[in-house]
Amino acid sequence: MGFELGPVARARGVGLVVFGAIPSTNDEAKALALAGERGPLWVVAARQTAGRGRLGRSWISSPGNLYASLILSGAFRPEVAPQLGFVAGVALLQALAAAAPGAAFALKWPNDLLLERAKLGGILVEGANGSGGFAVVVGIGVNCASAPEGLPYPARALSSLGPAAPSAGDVLTRLSDAFTLLLDIWAEGSGFAEIRRLWLGGAAGLGETVRLSLAGGEEALGRFEGLDAGGRLILRSEAGERVIDAGDVFLAHGEAGVLEPSGKNS
Question: Where are the domains of the chain?
């Protein structure tokens, strides 16, 4: 499987290193950042042997899917680094909309990519404070060839779209260009309002009743009203408006509007 950056990314000097199999692209990228790599550099693997998602959850890493991490650094403050997860989400949405026009892609707060309300991919943002200063690693996984089975929520792969479905290489090429251009808009945090607008334009469940699984086993039910200026989810219930810093969102599925069961994401 070949991986190449898009023409915009190449022209901007973005780097790419490709591995056959490594434990985790995020761990490899963090090690490079801690050793002084400043990026922008994409670290890509054909397969991961110890992939992980948000909150340390395992990420099932079958061959043929996309496993990529982007090292970034700059003048932005560490506290705005989580905004890069929204930049990544919009970049994925734009890349896939171009690669597979007509398919129903969407973003689920805070870090999931959906295809027809089934999980297609995820994003993991981590900081690395190494010898060259503070850097951020944005990890991205997309089910291109296959999706894991036996999960407590629906999952899909791009291959389910048919023979013309984009490959992992196709997705990376388009993603690298989209991400490069969106970083210009983000402008190290000063342009987050526009990123937030673009993200909400592709948000799953906006204006609908959702359930959130929060820290300590708490669950909250209410209407997904949007995101605040910092990217936190705004939930409205009979008790009033609540701003959520972190949690898992569960959407309604089917004509009956049944909320998917709670469960830990891969």
Answer: 7-201, 209-259
pLDDT in tens, 159-182: 999 999 999 999 999 999 999 999
**132: amino acid identity, one letter:** G
Q: Which residues partner with 128 through β-bridges?
A: 135
Strand partners, 140: 68, 123
pTM: 0.91
> Cα(182)–Cα(208) distance, rounded to whole angstroms?
28
Instruction: Give the separation between CA 231 and CA 235, rounded to whole angstroms.
Output: 13
| Kind of pairing between the strands at 252-253 and 209-213 | unpaired
Output the CATH code of domain 7-201.
3.30.930.10
CATH number of 209-259: 2.30.30
* Nearest residue to 108 (alpha-carbon basis) of 191, 243, 199: 199
